[in-house]
Amino acid sequence: MSFAVEVRDLTVRYGRATAVDNVSLRLEPGVVYGLLGRNGAGKTSLLSTIAAFQRASSGSVLVDGEDPYENARVMAGIALVREGGDFPEEKVRGVLDFAARLRPHWSAELAAELVDRFELPLDKKPTQLSRGKRSALGVVVGLASRAPLTMFDEAYLGLDAPSRYAFYDALLADYAAHPRTIVLSSHLIEEVERLFERVIILDQGTVLLEEDAEDLRSRGRTVTGPQDEVEAFVTGLRVVGRAQLGRTLQVTVVGDLPPGAEQRAVEAGLELGSVPLQDLFVHLTSKGERR
């Protein structure tokens, strides 16, 4: 079971500060989304409003066709795991029991498997755990809930590299067996981009881009070669980055190349390369590119 999300003209303000500014988007059911944005872009505020942790200042959010705020059926199907954890003041065993009572799709088998994988002590309280173990507990709760809408807001940043990769593998395996709508908000783009089916980029509280992940990856290209030839080749294209060493210039462009462009590049002695999603994100959200 998966939930769709419809966000319409959503604005979230804190006093005079606007965190989310008139955002409209749709999350299709059964898709893994990457939610990307620099610090302060509005990611946490957007996810918290979708999860009904707070009210919108204006606009609306529909989850599975209904307003999630104080809606017991819908909220039972939403799991938002934040970096802080939001755990009750009980031992880890009690935290898991509490989650099992709240989540109708809870998998005790998966929870036990992940507890063992991350070596979580069941007889300690979350406040007694290291940052890494608290992050692991959040991962266990988020995955074992099998909520139709599962969102991780930087919840796994405290994990060391082997544990993060264990989380990614567990997520992919359980998502394949039990599809649901998943949103991953992360700064570790290079690590997690393989998980994304669609990408949403927030910038200064607005949606900068929403696109299929493969299409986005294919639209970023580097053009490298003699400066004059590169400048002539990229005329009319959207240039988002430049790097120069002597007479050699490398330009990063975003957008579809015109017909015959690859052949012209070969004839001009230019090299076309792909752009990692993380590099593309950095270019698109740099101050010079904001619109």
Largest sheet: 6 strands, mixed
The CATH architecture assignment of the largest domain turns out to be 3-Layer(aba) Sandwich
How far is the N terminus from the C terminus?
Answer: 38 Å
**From N to C, what is the helix and strand string?**
EEEHEHEHHHEHEHEEHEHEEHEH
The residue fraction in helices comes out at 25-40%
Helix- and strand-based class?
alpha/beta
The tally of beta strands, per DSSP, is 13
Estimate the global geometry from the Cα principal axes: elongated
CATH topology of the largest domain: Rossmann fold
Number of helices: 11
What is the top-level CATH class of the largest domain?
Alpha Beta
Give the SSE map.
Blueprint: E1 5-14, E2 17-27, E3 32-36, H1 43-50, E4 58-63, H2 72-76, E5 78-82, H3 92-102, H4 108-117, H5 131-145, E6 149-153, H6 161-177, E7 181-185, H7 189-192, E8 198-203, E9 206-212, H8 213-219, E10 220-226, H9 227-233, E11 238-245, E12 248-254, H10 261-267, E13 271-274, H11 277-284
Parallel strand pairs: 3-7, 3-8, 5-6, 6-7
Antiparallel strand pairs: 1-2, 1-4, 8-9, 10-12, 10-13, 11-12
